[in-house]
Every structure is written in C-alpha cells, then in structure tokens.
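hey so i finaly got around to running the thing on Gluconokinase from Forsythia ovata. pasting the sequence first so u can double check i didnt mess up the copy paste, my clipboard has been acting weird all day
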Amino acid sequence: MASDKGVAIVLMGVSGSGKSTVGAMLVNVINGRFLDADDYHPQSNKEKMQKGIPLSDEDRIPWLETLRDVLRVGLLNGETIILGCSALHKRYREILRSADPDYIPGSYLCVVKFVLLDVAAEVLAARLEKRAAEGNHFMPAKLLQSQLALLQIEEDEGIMKVDASLEPQAIKIDESSRSNSMCGTTEYMAPEILLSKGHNKDADWWSVGILLTEWGVHPPFTHPNRKKLQEKIINEKVKLPPRLSSESHSLLKGSKCRFELELGVAELGLQSASRTHRDNDKLPERLRGCATIEDRGLYQMGFTPISRVTQDVRQVKYSREDLWCYVELRLPRII
Ligand SMILES: Nc1ncnc2c1ncn2[C@@H]1O[C@H](COP(=O)(O)OP(=O)(O)OP(=O)(O)O)[C@@H](O)[C@H]1O
Ligand SMILES: O=C(O)[C@H](O)[C@@H](O)[C@H](O)[C@H](O)CO
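ok and heres what it spat out for the 3d tokens, dont ask me to read them lol
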C-alpha cells in the first residue's frame, strides 16, 4: 500500500555543507535512520577524490544506483531514512527518486524528498580547510569549486532550501517552509501558487476544497483559456449554491476554513485516499469502484494529486449523491 511506504529525506549539497553533521542531528529528533552516502563509495572513488580529481558520471552513477537500491529496501519497509548525499545534479537526484517504486520520472512527486543545505562558498572553503588540516577526511578542499560548478537545482523539483551556514543547532528544517515549486493542474491551484508568492500546505487545502466543490456542485473555476482561468482563480471568490443539503453545507464549512465556502479539509483527507482499498468493504456496493482513485505513483508527502482523483471520479461517473456519500464516509479522517 502506498500509505505504508516510508519516506526518505536526502540532505544534499556540496562537500562541507554539513550533510553528515545535520543528518546526525536530525535522526535524533525524528524517528529515522541516517545513511551517509560517503560510506557507499567504492574505494576507487575515494582514492580519486583524495588525489583531487572530481568524480565523473561513470564514477557516480553506479554509486547512486547502489544508494537507490538501499533506499528502496528501506522505503518498502516503511522506514524514515535520512540520507546525506551530494546529489548535485538533477540526473543524480532522478536516480535516487527512482528508489520509490511508483516514481514517474520527471514528475518529482515522490517519497524521496530533497533538502539543499545552502552555504556560502567562503564558509564552505573555511570549513573544508579546517577539516583537511585536522586530517580526518579524504575529500580535499580543492575539489570544492568543481562541486559548486555542478550543483544545480530546478524550481520544479520543489527542493527545500535551508540556510546551513548557521551554527548546526540554529539550522531549521521545517516541513512547512515555503516552496516555490509550481506543478499541477491549473484548475486546482491556489492563487498563491499562480502568483508565485510561495506556498505551504494551505495550498493543498485549497485544492481539496476545489475538488469537493467539483464533486458536490460543479467545478468552481473553469475557462478554456489557461490565462483567463488563472485570472479567475486569483480574482474571483467561490460561491456555494444554496441548493446543497445542510449536511453538505456543514461539511463545506468545516472548522479549518480557507476560502468563502471555506472547505475545511486537511491534508489527511488526501492521505486517506490511499487507504481506499482497505476501506472498500465499508463502502456501499455501488461505490467500491472508487478504489481507482488510488495511484501510488502520485504521492508527495501523502499528497494525492487532485487532478488524478477527479479524473477517476469523472471516469466512473458517479452521481452527486454517490460522491457525497463517499466524501462523508471519509469525513472522520478528513477533518
Ligand atoms: N553548521 C555548521 N557550522 C559550522 N561548522 C559546520 C557546520 N556543519 C558542518 N560543519 C563542519 O564542516 C565540516 C564538514 O561538515 P560535514 O562533514 O557535516 O559536511 P558534509 O556535507 O557531510 O561534507 P562531505 O560531503 O565532504 O562529507 C565538518 O568539519 C563539520 O564539523
Ligand atoms: O558527488 C560527489 O562528488 C561526491 O559525493 C562528493 O560530494 C563526496 O562524496 C563528498 O563530498 C566527500 O565528502
């Protein structure tokens, strides 16, 4: 089951950014296991770096594939793994993401998450020189430039960036930190995503609200022209038609409100979709096909992309009553 899959947090960054230091601290505060990618380098890679020669793709790819395999075993066992790994380039991160057996390449929706430890070059150089002087690491400071030259992240990847030039105790890795990634289906996107203002999990609540409105009433924002659609989402308010039942009104006016209907549904509602198979016996016969909403490949921190859910809902063509019945059955978990 997708919901039983573990999660991997890859602390990434160039040499000296603090992957081992921060990783060791992080496992003390979350119930997880720390893996240091350096421990998986073959001796030949270490010797090459020791000689001051940067690794090539040929050196890195088998190493990353080994890490991928190790991560996969952990994920399938439901573990939380913190991996300290440079993962400097997108092509390297894609190998690590493929540890998630359901990962669709290029989607970046995956239980393997990346956190970039961001440190100014001069701070890095000072750290590495100090470490080299202490003589307890194979990586020479002179390789720093080649590492910085290779480091590249793309906005779409939704990588969390943390300021790791601070003292280790002051470094905050906060899941609620704002992301600037923009991916998904426009109809379900919150205004702050469209405005690239940075967003947090509230944006997921917005999407759930849109979904429920679509199920219960009609899609609140539609327009054949994408730009016009975006303008509508940004500028218009969602209205709840009075013809809905009082039960539906109270559902839509749940306590964790967001916009005018204020659909108060937490991210848990999205996670609950993954448990659909398990709960099927609790559903009326006519609703059991709703299991098709499960798509293990499309999870991101327990997030089921709404577009996929609605697409499946449309395909099975349930009546509005059926859908409300389905939503209400999920309610105890959703709110
Ligand atoms: N936040 C920090 N503040 C000050 N010093 C730090 C900090 N983080 C790490 N260091 C020091 O910098 C050096 C490199 O740290 P660490 O080994 O954790 O980095 P790394 O990213 O794992 O490096 P590498 O990839 O080369 O193994 C160590 O000497 C460590 O004590
Ligand atoms: O991709 C790489 O070039 C390597 O992972 C390096 O980053 C080293 O392993 C590490 O920095 C040594 O400590």
